[in-house]
Design brief:
The chain is mainly β. Helix content is 12%, strand content 45%.
């Protein structure tokens, strides 16, 4: 079993993640699961001894069944939030490296993945123009995908309520 780069101590947690930004035909690929009421980025925990680029490729394959190639590192995201589902009430400090992935033209996924708590995950192509109408995390993604961007961006969000 691989060890995630994460520390959970009482009701505080830190985790290191790698996530993908996959855009095809004006839509972004997001995940949902049976436990939560929102969309989220495709990706997951970086394992000990694994680079973030290796992690994003592994996570995308686990969730979609396809081997996507990395185009470039796009965003370094520091996120503060309160957990949900199996980690409800945990105060998170999360560091995620978002990679822009090269488009493949694939839009149908038959792979079935699950969250760490065992909830069934499904992949969804959400039109970028309709991101305002749905609850999706990270919240910066809506604006990021609509604006021009050069190089790596550093984004900090605090979603604790």
């Amino acid at each position: 079993m691989e060890h995630n780069c994460a520390i959970i101590n009482d009701k505080k947690a830190f985790r290191y993640r790698a996530a993908a930004i996959i855009v095809e035909e004006g839509s972004v690929l997001l995940a949902r699961n049976d436990e939560d009421d929102y969309y989220y980025s495709v990706g997951g925990a970086v394992h000990m001894g694994e680079t973030s680029e290796e992690a994003v490729k592994r996570e995308v394959f686990e969730e979609t069944g396809f081997n996507y190639e990395v185009d470039q590192l796009a965003v370094i995201h520091e996120n503060f939030f309160i957990g949900s589902s199996g980690l409800k009430g945990v105060d998170f400090h999360e560091l995620t490296l978002y990679y822009m992935m090269k488009p493949t033209g694939k839009r149908e996924f038959t792979r079935q993945s699950t969250t760490e708590s065992g909830a069934k995950e499904t992949m969804h192509w959400v039109p970028i123009d309709e991101l305002d109408k749905c609850k999706a995390y990270p919240t910066f993604m809506k604006e990021y995908l609509r604006s021009g961007h050069n190089g790596v961006e550093h984004i900090i969000t605090d979603e604790r309520i």
